[in-house]
Task: inverse folding
């Protein structure tokens, strides 16, 4: 491939964005929703605590934000590296 | 007009709509049959993916499982939405760039091996068939209630409808039909939830009502619910009781499985560009989240309503509901209706004319029961899968809402069953027959074999659906475990590693699928035949890890075996490394190629 170096920079930028997103993904679900719930038990939310809210509502909202952030960020990255489709 | 006629009207009207659309967009060539000519907008595609995805498990079964377990079943909520993050970040854009029609084509080409493609086909068929079994369970419940027949009769009628429906159109028919189905199912799910949320909390948004105050008592809704269920001897609703390791693995299995299921991945082949594949996953989750944010509210509120209904005079002090009330009062009519399906039952064991509903396994409750002369829980059967469909009747909502829910439940079960049958039939006809056994098959022969494959799959699923290995959502969870252990790791390694070679991938998939399948069969019976299991999920083979949670471990085995075997065999050739490099950049995606 002619523009190998640009592709490598593009790919490692992509992998870095993915890794950051997945850390947040795991933190809100496995973290706040399950493992770290005892830590958040002091924060009351409508008759229960913040961990319960993350497990049944919050994590889903964060997942949505993550996917739209990634789509927006990657489409920008495609343009920056001149690898978008058109 | 009686309820039965109203249900019939709603279900009939919604079916007429789907069939009308299917005729209007009837599939012609094979290319259209599989991938709708790739002209689908991301929002449309997202909505169709949501309909495809939200099956009987999400619509009919999930809220019931949450209602009767509480916080511990949050895994379903996080698992079935969190998988979309994996799908959007790790798979969808690259598979669209690769530009073929099926998941196994990608695996076959990337791992330059017809064997890899064949193994992928087998994995897809195993996971999808298990999934269809779960759907058929839900179809049985929905048809049983709506036609007022037994669960078994409902299942057999449902199977015929699903088959006729899936054979009728290909994906193009299915794409637009599924948009219509999404609209029907989301209205059917949210409208009753809004009514109930208004009744109980005064808040029209169920997701907010769940954390709001209970109007009748002025306490927070969840605190009120915790108080009622503990009074009856059940576990507190909002507390974590389940084994933490198992809960984490179960959530992870559902997430990875979501990103490994063929009928969902196939959807991302049908958008015009790579950028659209990224947006599509987001739109799909928007439409899915509308249901998933509502489901925990539906579960909690239904649990509260049921407890109130069984103890209508303010808890145990006021006394239980009388059998006379159940027979005569209109708000208890739903109990008699559901009794007909065989999925709900009660019995006045101590003959006191009242039906005591409580946890008779709880020692304190047993002591109280002995004192009060109770002889065990008298609400003897409450199948979790009926909760959502019975919910509007329990809350005494207008009859048109009940009709709408019947139509929605059927839409959910039908759309997913159709999507899965399509994935199975394309795996058999396109990958198995055209791809390896008989490459010269005519287009007509390919379509015919696709339809035969559908018929066989549905026959097997119906047979096993008569004695399902669990409630709809639990059976579906097993399918996710299988997809997680076999397909997802192969796809991910195919994109994110240039090193993993043909032998490594094949060994990985076989090890992941094999170990997971054996673990499931050991707990659920060989080939899901009841009674042939050596362990139960209450006392599993490995520590606390239930068969529904094993997919995550299967996936790890898959990764490890692929890595080790790759190290011992010939490295990947250069042209495959170039292929991987090209899949990683969106430039030059163009139209998808048939072979």
Result:
């Amino acid at each position: 491939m002619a523009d190998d170096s640009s592709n490598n920079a593009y790919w490692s930028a992509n992998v870095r964005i993915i890794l950051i997103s997945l850390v947040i993904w795991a933190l809100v679900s496995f973290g706040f929703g399950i493992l770290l719930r005892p830590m958040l038990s002091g924060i009351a939310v409508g008759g229960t605590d913040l961990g319960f809210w993350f497990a049944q509502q919050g994590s889903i909202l964060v997942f949505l934000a993550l996917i739209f952030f990634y789509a927006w960020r990657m489409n920008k990255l495609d343009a920056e590296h001149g690898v978008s489709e058109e | 007009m009686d309820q039965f006629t109203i249900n019939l009207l709603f279900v009939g009207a919604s079916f007429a709509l789907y069939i009308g659309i299917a005729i209007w967009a009837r599939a012609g060539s094979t290319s259209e049959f599989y991938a709708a000519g790739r002209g689908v907008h991301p929002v449309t595609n997202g909505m169709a993916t949501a309909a495809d995805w939200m099956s009987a498990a999400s619509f009919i079964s999930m809220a019931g499982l949450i209602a009767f377990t509480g916080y511990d079943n949050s895994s379903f909520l996080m698992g079935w939405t969190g998988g979309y993050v994996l799908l959007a970040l790790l798979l969808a854009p690259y598979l669209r760039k690769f530009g073929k029609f099926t998941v196994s084509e990608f695996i076959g080409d990337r791992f330059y091996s017809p064997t890899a493609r064949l193994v992928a086909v087998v994995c897809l068929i195993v996971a999808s068939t298990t999934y269809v079994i779960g759907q058929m369970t839900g179809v049985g419940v929905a048809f049983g209630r709506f036609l007022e027949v037994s669960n078994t009769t409902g299942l057999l009628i449902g199977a015929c409808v699903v088959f006729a429906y899936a054979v009728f159109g290909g994906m193009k028919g299915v794409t637009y039909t599924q948009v219509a189905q999404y609209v029907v199912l989301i209205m059917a799910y949210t409208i009753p939830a809004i009514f109930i949320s208004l009744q109980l909390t005064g808040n029209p948004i169920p997701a907010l009502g769940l954390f709001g105050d209970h109007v009748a008592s002025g306490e927070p809704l969840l605190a009120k619910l915790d108080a009622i269920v503990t009074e009856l001897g059940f576990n507190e609703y909002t507390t974590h009781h389940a084994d933490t390791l198992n809960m984490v693995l179960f959530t992870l299995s559902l997430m990875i499985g979501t990103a490994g299921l063929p009928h969902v991945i196939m959807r991302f082949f049908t958008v015009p560009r790579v950028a659209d594949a990224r947006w599509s996953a987001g739109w799909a989750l928007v439409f899915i989240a509308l249901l998933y944010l509502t489901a925990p509210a539906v579960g909690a509120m239904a649990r509260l309503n049921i407890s109130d209904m069984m103890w209508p005079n303010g808890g145990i002090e006021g006394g239980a509901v009388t059998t006379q009330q159940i027979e005569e009062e209109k708000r208890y009519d739903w109990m008699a209706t559901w009794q007909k399906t065989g999925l709900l039952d009660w019995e006045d064991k101590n003959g006191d004319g009242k039906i005591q509903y409580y946890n008779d396994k709880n020692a304190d409750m047993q002591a109280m029961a002995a004192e009060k002369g109770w002889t065990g829980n008298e609400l003897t059967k409450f199948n979790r899968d009926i909760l959502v469909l019975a919910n509007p009747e329990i809350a005494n909502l207008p009859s048109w809402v009940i009709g709408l829910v019947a139509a929605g439940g059927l839409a959910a079960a039908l759309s997913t069953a159709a999507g899965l049958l399509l994935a199975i039939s394309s795996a058999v006809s396109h990958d198995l027959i055209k791809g390896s056994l008989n490459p010269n098959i005519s287009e007509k022969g390919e379509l015919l074999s696709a339809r035969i494959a559908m018929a066989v799959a549905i026959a097997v699923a119906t047979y096993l659906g008569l004695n399902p290995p669990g409630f709809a959502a639990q059976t579906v969870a097993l399918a996710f475990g299988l997809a997680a252990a076999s397909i997802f790791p192969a796809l991910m390694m195919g994109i994110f590693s240039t090193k993993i070679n043909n032998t490594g991938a094949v060994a990985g998939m076989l090890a992941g699928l094999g170990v997971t399948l054996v673990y499931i069969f050991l707990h659920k019976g060989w080939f899901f035949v009841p009674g042939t299991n050596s362990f139960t999920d209450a006392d599993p083979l490995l520590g606390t890890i239930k068969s529904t949670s094993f997919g995550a471990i299967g996936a790890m085995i898959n990764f490890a075996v692929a890595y080790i075997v790759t190290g011992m065999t010939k490295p990947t050739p250069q042209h495959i490394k170039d292929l991987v490099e090209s899949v990683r950049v969106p430039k030059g995606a163009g139209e998808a190629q048939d072979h």
